[in-house]
Backbone:
């Protein structure tokens, strides 16, 4: 049903407990996102505030006005794309064991499953194995509730006690892994935002050059 609980009464973590929590990196990641938002916000303010002033008296005809408008639209689209994707870094992600199965955390799972001993010691051989202790305890508890035979119920209760002990001993590793997954989601969002910022910079540059070209002809 379930493996017997270890006799030492505790789970030895495969890392030094004095290490900082992965959650301490969240503030730094979000601070970087805020700086990026501030930078693109300043660019957008400059375009909105300075663009129309530059265009006054320098745009002649419908074609030039349309060209200046399209150029400003392209530049502001770049700013909007950057702000949209960077702001997602500031959204608090929901992190559960099911989150570890999502494509966004595939890299983290592969890294852990390639060297489980470095992360879990002897407590588990993979991410799924780590969370299996809690699943086993839940399944046995359900079996206890369904069982009507006193002897078999007593046997189930003994298995349940061992399963709960195993689940309690891997609980620190589960909490650490969920904290790591939480940070990994934010880090992944920040990396994606940086890539989108490169696209945004290109759009801002194209739009700005186009706007200056139209308004500079006068």
Residues:
């Amino acid at each position: 049903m379930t493996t017997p609980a270890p006799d030492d009464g505790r789970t030895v973590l495969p890392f030094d407990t004095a290490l900082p929590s992965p959650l301490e990196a969240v503030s730094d990641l979000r601070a970087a996102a805020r700086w990026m938002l501030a930078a693109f916000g300043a660019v957008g303010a400059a375009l909105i505030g300075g663009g129309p002033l530059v265009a006054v008296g320098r745009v002649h005809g419908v074609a030039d006005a349309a060209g200046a408008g399209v150029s400003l639209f392209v530049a502001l689209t770049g700013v909007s794309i950057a702000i949209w994707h960077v702001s997602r870094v500031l959204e608090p992600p929901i992190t559960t064991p099911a989150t570890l199965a999502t494509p966004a955390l595939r890299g983290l799972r592969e890294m852990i499953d390639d060297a489980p001993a470095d992360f879990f010691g002897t407590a588990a051989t993979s991410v799924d194995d780590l969370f299996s202790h809690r699943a086993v305890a839940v399944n046995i508890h359900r079996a206890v509730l369904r069982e009507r035979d006193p002897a078999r119920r007593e046997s189930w209760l003994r298995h349940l006690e061992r399963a709960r002990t195993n689940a309690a001993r891997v609980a620190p590793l589960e909490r650490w892994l969920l904290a790591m997954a939480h940070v990994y989601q934010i880090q992944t969002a920040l990396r994606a935002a940086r890539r989108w910022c490169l696209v945004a910079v290109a759009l801002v540059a194209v739009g700005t050059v186009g706007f200056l070209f139209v308004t500079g002809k006068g």
